[in-house]
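can u do me a favor
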């Protein structure tokens, strides 16, 4: 975890704010984010790629809170979206000008979403099939707005990540082959209502080795050079996202090494790079603050039941993800005990950690589940008719609620 989360005088703090103070004011479970950590991560990407023309498009799906999107825009970031809803959030938070720094990815865009994006004048669409290209052309013609398009290439590269978040092999639904990419690029260039502007790829998320990026970019480079030889100008080269973070003891490459790898693989192409980081920007910037409800001794295990459940944080149940769990009150040196840390949901998969060693925690004590700024609240639901948690943003010694906890009426607001 970044040093913005640290123990001070025996209490775990976010920047200069004790997490216990947030729990007392806002209750639990609550997501807590560090503004300094997010700003620092964005600045690190900008420094790493300062020598090459580039646009950083934050991946909105990682965390789409309006206050965080506003912060990204203030730092000069653009956005990578995958739905009309994400475009709506970008427009509401960052203003109309942000659309010109927004790219639209995803394999199943609707006509309504395409119309929204054309009206907003986004930077470009990622095209992932022939049918999608035809639909974009139809909607551009209907709205009499020219659409900028880039073709997403599937480089058939194994990313070494969890199967559910790998996206760059031929067995996956994303992108098209290099041969099909060339055909779609020619088709786009020949249409008066389309403007072919580039190519891109995205091979997965939480990638911790550089080798998959090298392989993918070698194939993307071949495609770009082939298109140039055919007389098609590749203005943008979108290298996607996928930069991993350390959740436990993973070995993760340095951002400077990643940047050198990208720059070496694309040198001489004369393309403007587009980067789509998400997890690497917001993941380490957030914790899920939760309270112990029950200590339970089973026949074979000890359980610590929290007031947060898999509806609040799905990653452990969905991916088998392992997040560090820290007591908010710093434990004195002494014995620990193995416990399964679980939630109150009626599913055995509602488990945050198995056999993790923690100090003996009393009912009512607070814990922080670490590195949940990405794909935490973004995947939260109302399963078991539970209200989704609050979100808080910390800046220095101050904090503010950036999403209120849902009320009981919110659960049934649109039902009849």
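np, heres the sequence
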């Amino acid at each position: 975890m970044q040093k913005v989360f640290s123990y001070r005088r025996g209490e775990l703090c976010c920047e200069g704010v004790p997490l216990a103070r947030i729990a007392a004011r806002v209750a639990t479970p609550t997501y807590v984010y560090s503004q300094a950590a997010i700003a620092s991560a964005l600045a690190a990407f900008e420094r790493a790629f300062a020598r090459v023309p580039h646009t950083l498009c934050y991946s909105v799906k990682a965390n789409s809170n309006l206050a965080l999107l506003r912060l990204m825009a203030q730092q000069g970031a653009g956005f990578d979206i995958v739905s009309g809803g994400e475009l709506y959030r970008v427009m509401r938070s960052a203003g109309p000008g942000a659309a010109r720094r927004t790219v639209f990815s995803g394999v199943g865009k609707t006509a309504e979403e395409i119309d929204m994006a054309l009206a907003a004048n986004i930077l470009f669409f990622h095209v992932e099939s022939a049918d999608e290209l035809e639909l974009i052309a139809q909607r551009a013609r209907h709205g009499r707005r020219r659409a900028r398009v880039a073709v997403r290439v599937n480089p058939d590269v194994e990313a070494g990540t969890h199967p559910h978040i790998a996206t760059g092999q031929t067995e996956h639904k994303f992108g098209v082959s290099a041969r099909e990419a060339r055909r779609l690029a020619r088709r786009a260039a020949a249409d008066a209502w389309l403007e072919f502007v580039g190519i891109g790829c995205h091979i997965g998320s939480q990638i911790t080795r550089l080798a998959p990026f090298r392989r993918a970019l070698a194939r993307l480079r071949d495609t770009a050079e082939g298109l140039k030889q055919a007389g098609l100008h590749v203005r943008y080269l979108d290298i996607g996202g996928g930069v991993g973070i350390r959740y436990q003891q993973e070995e993760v490459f340095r951002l400077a090494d990643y940047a050198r790898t990208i720059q070496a693989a694309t040198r001489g192409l004369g393309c403007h790079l587009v980067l789509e980081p998400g997890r690497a920007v917001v993941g380490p910037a957030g914790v899920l603050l939760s309270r112990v409800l029950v200590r339970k001794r089973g026949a074979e295990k000890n359980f610590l039941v929290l007031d947060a459940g898999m509806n609040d944080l799905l990653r452990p149940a969905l991916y088998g993800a392992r997040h560090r769990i820290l007591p908010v009150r710093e434990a004195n040196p002494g014995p620990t005990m193995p416990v399964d840390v679980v939630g109150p949901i009626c599913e055995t998969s509602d488990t945050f950690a198995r056999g993790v060693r923690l100090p003996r925690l009393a009912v009512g004590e607070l814990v922080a589940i670490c590195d949940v700024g990405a794909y935490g609240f973004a995947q939260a639901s109302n399963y078991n008719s539970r209200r989704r948690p609050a979100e808080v943003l910390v800046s220095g010694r101050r904090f503010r609620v950036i999403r209120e906890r849902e009320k009981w009426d919110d659960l049934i607001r649109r039902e009849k």
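Residues 164-169 have pLDDT under 50 and may be disordered. hope that helps!!
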